[in-house]
Here is the input.
Amino acid sequence: MQIDIISLLPSLLESPLNHSILKRAQNKGLVNINIHNLRDYSTHKQKQVDDYQYGGGAGMVLMIEPIVNCIEYLKAATKYDDIIYMSPDGELLNQNISNEISLKKNILILCGHYKGIDERVREHFITREVSIGDYVLTGGELAANVLIDSVARLLPGVLNNETSALEDSFQDNMISPPVYTRPSEFRGMKVPEILLSGNEKLIQNWRTEQSIERTKKRRPDLL
Ligand code: 6GU
Here is the structure.
């Protein structure tokens, strides 16, 4: 999969992409992630990328020209399955959306800033708008990192255990059961006996039960 990101703050995106699982996924060639600095596509002398909004009001708006310059430059080399704008008024990210996006070959993600971007970009160039929750961030970068992380870990070969993404919370609209590791007893706090029993069938049943109980209690909206 190829993921291109357009951002005014590339360094804000970098760290999460260059550690642990995402770093390994890129090194293995399972995902190719490129960050493009929007400012490089400004044709202004001062590399301006934002301006006051028509009609008045506080807050700067990202201008259409540098964004379209950048999108068109990238589109000349790559055919994108989706051009995604990260925005708090987009569709709310969930596991289904991450699964769906993980099946695409090439995606382009645009991170907004300030008051937003010129609406004409959204109307004519963006194919999908994604939000990571009902709260406002200073820009789309952190949200893009969340989206990319949730998508990249689903790509074949990215996680060590082939089945582990399938058993995630939310993958079947259920919360995962609790997990434990050694020691089996710590300051009198014990691991549930059944997990030490070695009986796979009983353990599987227990996990399913726990999963249902937790979902009922914590996220009844999922049931
Ligand atoms: Cl995608 N962007 C911003 N700026 N704020 C958000 C968001 C995105 N998702 C939730 N809040």
